[in-house]
Amino acid sequence: MKNYIIHDPWHIIENQFRAEHNEFSESIFSIGNGRMGQRGNFEESFSGKTMQGSYLAGVYYPDKTRVGWWKNGYPEYFAKVLNAVQWIGLDIRIDGMLLDLAQCEISGFERRLDMKAGVLYRTFIAEMPTGAVVEVTAKRMYHLFQSDTASLQYTLRVLNSDAEVSIRSYLNGDVVNRDSNYDERFWVPIAEDIQDDLVLVTETKKTQFRVETHLRNVFYVRGTVQASGTKSKEQCYVSEELRAHLNVGESIRLEKYVAIVSSLHHPLDKLTEVAQSSLAQIASKSYTELVQLQTDAWARIWEESDIQIEGDIAAQQAIRFNIFQLNQTYTGEDARLNIGPKGFTGEKYGGVTYWDTEAYCLPFYLATQAPRVARNLLLYRYQHLEKAIENAGKLGFDKGAALYPMVTINGEECHNEWEITFEEIHRNGAIAYAIYNYIRYTDDTAYLATHGLEVLIGISRFWAQRVNWSEQKQQYVMLGVTGPNEYENNVNNNWYTNKIAVWCLRYTLDAITQQQAQQEDCLYALLSRLALKTEECAKWQHIIDNMYLPEDSDRGVFLQQDGFLDKELIPVVELPAEVRPLNQHWSWDRILRSCYIKQADVLQGLYFFEHEFDEDTIRRNYDFYEPLTVHESSLSPCVHAIIAAKLGKEDKAYEFYLRTARLDLDDYNNDTEDGLHITSMAGTWLAIVEGFAGMRVRDGKLHFQTFIPKNWQSYAFHVQYRGTKLYIKVSQDDFEIKNLSDTEISIIFNEEQLLIEPEWKS
Ligand code: BGC
To answer: Where is the Glycoside hydrolase family 65 C-terminal domain (predicted)?
Structure first.
């Protein structure tokens, strides 16, 4: 746990240089623009603790899997979005000595992320071992207004004596991933050019993504633009150096503009042209103009997605930080991109896609962006359907059964833990649920006809083959799975997995019926292409009617899995603090035998299918499972917050909210240095909008059931819904609703039906 980020509503501020926590701060000060992003690394050389990381969305490498004992069906590789060209680098010498913060006395240090404008600032004063004292101010942006470009401005002033200063500004393509399985280098040098702008071309091994980076440096000495510096190149590295003699108080400034384009987005033979024109566009503007463009672009995002909290600056800062990170990770422009659990902020989880996207992130993008953004998230999976069928085939399923990967970038499974690859099949359910969620939210039923149904049929075929008939139970069962609670493996009849499987089958059959009424021709063409016959649907119905869903009738709870009650049910509060988190203190074997739940499992099902259960059932299950849950996945507390809010357990809901909201800023789990928990950030938004404000879609209508934490004066947010945009503000004794669109909307607000005219006020 750390507690040094200064509380401020719009800024993330660190006001002291803490070399020992630099990797934590690098994660916190990550910036990006959906297309690319970077950890908050320093521009100048740093010999202290650092994890260098600059990433380009979708540019990955299939790193050969490492396992002790190979088993059939293991994925061959773990895909990772690669650490890419280091474009911010500056070697700075003062009287010949390298400026390295680890070797200097540092004062006046401040790192500040302006979330409103999307600009990262840093200032410090460094006393060099030689006694020279310099002051640095730096700004950096990943442009939201032009997503293949970025820039920085770096100003250095000499404070106590005249000095010979040199700045070497470089592009370094010789970068590695810290988590590389075999210490491989993933990039191949292709070309370097220094004739005009500096150009570096590199290509990934195997996947052959070609990346061109074009850099223009503009140097100013004492405020005057200089002719270009001395350029040089070597393999995978280009640089330009400017030297100047500065008198006390004088400064040198560098503006560094880059365009980074890849063959993922442009034809190979157009890369140079695109990079040149992108670079020319940004370099023709002053830095002030660029900051303004960035501020305007972020203003448009904030207009849609900001949550305002009055009366609690820590909570305000946290929710904005979460929203900021989500928006800089995914902008929804390209259906081939997705949301890695750590976004562009670290290497863990490889920057690739998990069920997190569908289960947690989708509702955020649905409510805060145009439907196209959420639709692109669905299309990502639609495009991977063939691969999902192949994946299922590798595990022995056939006839069009689709098993989506637990971890993927290109549709292939690439996780190298067998329990997760083979058993954590509930991810298939979340992908189907996302289709349902998208359609009920947007009413885009056409999506079902054109894309959704085909995915649902593939998934249903998988479930129908994955269950088996138990003679003993005279019911269908599902054996050998891992549920969302990864602290149990190879269990039988995980309630959540069985439940979502049955739900998928039913939803698919309902969708077919619905399409019969609406798009008959289209439907029959699809069913005939997929050879889906009545008998197959009848089998699905039989499974729906006869699926075993374990429960304990005495306690009135669903059982996480067969045999759960055989465990010693000792509540988490009785565990000594020193053994937490369990995954860092107990053997895996001990964790598996224990009753402790890593993350919402039965409760995840109650959250998804809340409408099927009465409040008492939800309460009994919450009261039973919550005390056994250790929340060692960041995805857990938000689900508990939403359910606690629904049950009127307001203090608990608030406690869980805080746990997710400041998870990274305060480093609750001591792991922020690995990167930020981007996907759980969506859970923080959910905790407010679905938890505190109780937003639901039921029967085509938006419902709200609100409460407000005691220490807040108010909270307010916008949601988009089927062409309307609402502003909702909840205060201690009042509420305000505005309709910011031009059509009226009828909603249920705290059990009252309200017709909200455009710009209506309570
Ligand atoms: C969680 C998974 C999640 C993954 C990536 C794991 O710790 O248990 O549910 O998909 O992290 O966020």
So the answer is: 695-753
